[in-house]
């Protein structure tokens, strides 16, 4: 609830992305800024990748007598007029304090909290366009489930966003099918936020904001030693765990705060590969036992990947105890888009890309590209054999193997450990 604040400024929040999850998270934070007007400004700017959209005839918004319905309209105009993202989150009423904006630089202007939430294949280009446009003391949260693989290696999006924009960026990930969260069905999520110590200090209310610099948190230290962060001016409420949690926690969306940014990010990214494997075996009609075997092996490979390549910060418990780990694998292997499309692809004998195009109305699978990206990283490290499930999914997508080959391909995981 709103209470008196000793701070003369409030945080302005922007959401970069407005797909199925982007719009849902905008709804969550729009509700929370209304409930905490002592900490946050009331308007949420939400960046929309602009497109024309024709309201379908079976939509409750279709009105044959209105120009809004008879020809395609800008999606931003529809969202702002109807307070609903009719394309990516149809049927969900959005709080009126969400403003859809087609200009990404204008969306983030003056915002101290930036929430990145779009399919991972697009974030690099979007961040390139934001260089120099964000206020220097802004802080970010990445809700993106994927990893960034390049010649330099495998990078978390929290890291690459942070480096590109010269800001600290944490991560949010969990067992969170967007449509269920949007309908306010209870779930949990994990937020990893480990900002520079200066963000948690109790502020000195009066005086100059004096943007000073601080070292990056340990996760990023080794990779960008030269990067210096601007301090959050004392006029703002501190961006500590409590205030970050306040922005996201709802009665139906329970937040657990942790510090393991790598574990949270990797859990969200790698489970998408596992969900494809689960869809493949389910598509074959192999039943729940086969799916559970895939889940068990998937968790093992997630932990191994994290401890092998992000050992300086990653905790195995993040995968086995948090919503972003085991819970997200279970959810994703039950009702996620990657699971559903992989299952249909096997049942219908069609390429998964064709199913994605037909079924998802513009939403994007993350597992297929992540399987290729993880494969290219493992190949560069000559470690393909160490991750047979991830490799099996890649080889099935590539046409080198069939879903029926999965038991043979993951057999190494079935041998005794004694
Ligand atoms: N949908 C879910 O249930 C869910 C839940 C948790 C996390 N996530 C993760 O959240 C992230 C965002 O997923 P989502 O579900 O919001 O997206 P989505 O799958 O609904 O993707 C569509 C979005 O991509 C945008 N887009 C299309 N082409 C683009 C381009 N060239 N440049 C920029 N944007 C473009 C569209 O405008 C739309 O906003 C993903 O990493 C996903 O794994 C999704
Ligand atoms: O629909 P998916 O497969 O992208 O999964 C959605 C969420 O990540 C589940 O937590």
TrEMBL record:
GO terms for biological process: carbohydrate metabolic process; glycerol-3-phosphate catabolic process. Its EC number is 1.1.1.8. InterPro entries: 6-PGluconate_DH-like_C_sf (IPR008927), 6PGD_dom2 (IPR013328), G3P_DH_NAD-dep (IPR006168), G3P_DH_NAD-dep_C (IPR006109), G3P_DH_NAD-dep_N (IPR011128), NAD(P)-bd_dom_sf (IPR036291). It comes from the Eukaryota. Residues 205-217 have a biased composition (Low complexity). One of its GO terms (cellular component) is cytosol. Residues 12-196 form the Glycerol-3-phosphate dehydrogenase NAD-dependent N-terminal domain. It catalyses: sn-glycerol 3-phosphate + NAD(+) = dihydroxyacetone phosphate + NADH + H(+). Residues 260-406 form the Glycerol-3-phosphate dehydrogenase NAD-dependent C-terminal domain. Belongs to the NAD-dependent glycerol-3-phosphate dehydrogenase family. PANTHER family: GLYCEROL-3-PHOSPHATE DEHYDROGENASE, GLYCEROL-3-PHOSPHATE DEHYDROGENASE [NAD(+)]-RELATED. This is Glycerol-3-phosphate dehydrogenase [NAD(+)]. It comes from Saxophila tyrrhenica. The gene is GPD1_1.
């Amino acid at each position: 609830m709103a209470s008196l604040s000793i701070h003369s400024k409030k945080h302005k929040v922007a959401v970069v992305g407005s797909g199925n999850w982007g719009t849902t998270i905008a709804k969550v934070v729009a509700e929370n800024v209304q409930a905490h007007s002592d900490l946050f400004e009331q308007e949420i700017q939400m960046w929309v990748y602009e497109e024309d959209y024709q309201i379908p005839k079976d939509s409750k918004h279709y009105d044959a007598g209105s120009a809004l319905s008879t020809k395609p309209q800008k999606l931003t105009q529809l969202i702002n007029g109807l307070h609903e993202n009719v394309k990516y989150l149809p049927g969900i009423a959005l709080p009126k304090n969400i403003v859809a904006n087609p200009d990404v630089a204008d969306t983030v202007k003056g915002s101290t909290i930036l929430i990145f939430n779009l399919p991972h294949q697009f974030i690099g280009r979007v961040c390139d366009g934001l260089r120099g446009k964000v206020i220097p003391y802004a802080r970010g949260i990445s809700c993106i489930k994927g990893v960034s693989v390049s010649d330099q290696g495998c990078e978390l999006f929290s890291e690459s966003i942070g480096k590109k924009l010269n800001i600290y960026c944490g991560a949010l990930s969990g067992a969170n099918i967007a449509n269920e969260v949007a309908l306010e069905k209870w779930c949990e999520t994990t937020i990893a936020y480990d900002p520079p110590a200066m963000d948690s200090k109790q502020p000195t209310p009066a005086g100059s904001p004096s943007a000073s610099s601080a070292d990056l948190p340990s996760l990023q230290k080794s990779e960008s030693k030269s990067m210096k962060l601007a301090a959050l001016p004392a006029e703002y409420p501190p961006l500590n765990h409590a205030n970050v949690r306040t922005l996201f926690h709802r009665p139906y969306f329970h937040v657990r705060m942790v510090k393991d940014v790598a574990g949270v990010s990797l859990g969200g990214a790698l489970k998408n590969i596992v969900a494809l494997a689960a869809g493949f075996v389910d598509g074959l009609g192999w039943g729940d036992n086969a799916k559970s075997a895939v889940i068990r092996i998937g968790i093992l490979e997630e932990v191994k990947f994290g401890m092998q390549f992000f050992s300086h910060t990653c905790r195995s418990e993040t995968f086995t105890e948090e919503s972003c780990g085991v819970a997200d694998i279970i959810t994703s292997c039950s009702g996620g888009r990657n699971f559903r499309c992989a299952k249909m692809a096997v049942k219908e004998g069609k390429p998964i890309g064709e199913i994605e195009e037909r079924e998802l109305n513009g939403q994007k699978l993350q597992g297929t590209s992540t399987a290729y990206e993880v494969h290219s990283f493992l190949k560069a490290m000559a470690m393909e054999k160490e991750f047979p499930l991830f490799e099996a999914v890649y080889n099935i997508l590539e046409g080198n193997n069939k879903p029926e080959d999965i038991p043979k391909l993951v057999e190494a995981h079935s041998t005794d450990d004694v």
